[in-house]
Write a structure and sequence with these properties.
The chain is mainly alpha-helical. Helices cover 61% and strands 1% of the residues.
Length: 427
């Protein structure tokens, strides 16, 4: 696997966070661009600026585990909750420890900076810059004469001197006055690039750790999805090994398994957790996740193999699958492995509408799918030959993922409860 740029991965995952609320499409990229421009006017060094911009790209990631329904976002009710949830999600990844702290404090008021622990003070200052960029973007998409309203809000904030620092407000007002900056802001944001930094280039191990984190973010939406991704990733990696495919691709297929369902963040939670059969329109909405997965993964440089191997897990050999309706000659073996791993994991795990099937029941379903030319018979033969091994691989992976999910939910509750009981209000 080639080196991957962490910024490219973060940009891709920021699009996933935007899927939670489509009214905020491209919001994270715009906030990142505005943050970059403000940091530049504050003469921040490029390495530090890059870290703050990457935090801006993910600043609302905490809404994913806090989402109740497709129309209910906690950050509309209590901005501190999603900040703390985002920090809790990301802090376990050593690659994103600074970004996690910045996200924790991105709704902090300048007047509260002195109350932050010394070891977090710098990150809180950076977080306040992301919060300023967030406020600017929200104003610019509020309708009416947004630019005039924004300038008025910034000038009022400068007079009170409590919510944002005078220095950052001066930089923001200077940005507002720069000719044409806010024209085509979304297009400009989509082209944002950070200067190449050796610190942000990820080898196979770090890339896997990074993608594992975001698979947990995807699964954190619901107890019914909490272990699925982990089961598929470990299962497809073992199938890849049993099929005798090159070891050099083992991490690539694992990452494809981790991210195969990344588009499900854009599917309403009430459909994912529906206890009964989906209606045709509901099935159409759920099946769109494969298209969204393909859209996100194919846009990430270095994911030329990850995208088809992961996103094509619902393609069928008979051409009746999705998102592209591919036929057998167009579906690589790695995509076929992921498809079987996905079906086997889904059949053997508990779902809202049924308990997990027995091994014999799952194998019977796979055989019927082979007969219908939906999945690859040779791959299913591998499953028959090594079922106990594969099932134990899946079981262990899902048990670990279940423990992680419960721990994550507990940590988010602890973080938010501690905040609420402390009486400290950073906003």
């Amino acid at each position: 696997m080639q080196l991957l740029n962490m910024f490219d991965l973060i940009r891709g995952f920021s699009e996933v966070v935007d899927l939670v609320n489509t009214t905020l499409a491209n919001h994270h990229q715009r906030v990142a661009l505005i943050t970059d421009q403000v940091c530049g006017r504050l003469h921040m060094d490029r390495l530090t600026c890059s870290r703050v911009v990457m935090a801006a790209m993910l600043h609302d990631v905490g809404v994913i585990p806090l989402q109740e329904t497709s129309d209910s976002l906690f950050f509309e009710q209590d901005m501190s909750r999603h900040s703390l949830a985002g920090w809790t999600l990301l802090r376990s990844c050593y690659l994103l420890r600074l970004e996690a702290k910045i996200i924790r404090y991105h709704h902090i008021s300048w007047r509260a900076i002195d109350t932050v622990p010394d070891e977090d003070r710098e990150a809180a200052c950076f977080g306040h810059l992301v919060g300023l960029a967030d406020m600017i973007d929200m104003h610019l998409h509020s309708g009416g004469d947004a630019a005039a309203t924004l300038k008025s809000a910034l000038k009022k904030a400068r007079q009170t001197g409590q919510t944002y620092s005078q220095e950052s407000l001066a930089a923001a007002l200077e940005l507002c006055d720069s000719p044409g900056f806010f024209d085509n802001l979304t297009e400009k944001a989509s082209r944002l690039q950070l200067p190449p930094q050796p610190e942000f280039m990820l080898g196979p191990e770090d890339a896997t750790i990074f993608c594992l984190l975001f698979s947990h973010v995807i699964d954190a939406r619901s107890p019914f999805t909490a272990t699925h991704t982990s089961g598929v990733a470990h299962l497809v990696r073992r199938l890849h090994e049993l099929a005798g495919l090159p070891e050099r691709d083992r991490k690539v297929i694992f990452i494809a398994g981790l991210l195969h369902d990344i588009g499900k963040v854009g599917v309403p939670l009430d459909l994912l957790e529906k206890p009964g059969k989906l209606e045709p329109e509901e099935f159409k909405a759920v099946s769109r996740h494969a298209f969204l997965s393909q859209q996100v993964l194919s846009a990430i440089p270095g994911f030329e193999q990850v995208s088809p191997w992961g996103a094509w897990h619902h393609e069928k050999l008979n051409g009746q699958g999705y998102p592209n309706g591919l036929t057998a000659e167009d579906i690589p073996l790695e995509s076929r492995l992921t498809a079987v791993a996905d079906v086997l994991t889904a059949l053997t795990e508990d779902r809202p509408y049924r308990p997990g099937m027995s091994g014999s029941g799952a194998l019977a379903v796979l055989d019927r799918m082979v007969a219908g030319q939906a999945i690859d018979g040779e791959v299913v033969n591998l499953v028959h030959q090594h079922f106990e091994d594969l099932d134990e691989t899946r079981r262990q992976a899902q048990n670990l993922a279940s423990h992680y999910y419960r721990t994550l939910k507990r940590d988010i509750l602890i973080a938010t409860d501690t905040y609420q009981r402390s009486g400290f209000c950073p906003t």
